Amino acid sequence: MKTPKDIQNAEGPINLEEAVGDFERNLIEQALEKCNGIQTRAAEHLGTTRRILRYRMDKLGIRPQRGKHP
User: Domain DNA binding HTH spans what residues (predicted)?
Assistant: First the structure.
């Protein structure tokens, strides 16, 4: 994942779609980790619905975490 520092120091053009995708992927993965893989809680944590979270996970190729429930 590219950080804002990486983008700031980049030479040449920056791919906006890639940078936004990396940022979104990181947020979703962190929310899932914090919520022990429970998608409904992760969606609430991100201020969205489970349906939208699932759509974005599918779009970004993020697989649901199994066996992380307490």
Answer: 21-60
* pLDDT higher than 70, residue 65: yes
pLDDT in tens, 16-25: 999 899 999 9
Report d(CA 31, CA 67) in Å as an integer: 16
Amino acid at 63: R
CATH, residue 24: 1.10.10.60
Predicted TM-score (pTM) of the model is: 0.78
Q: Is residue 54 part of a domain?
A: yes
Contact predicate 21/60, CB 8 Å: yes
Domain assignment present for 40: yes
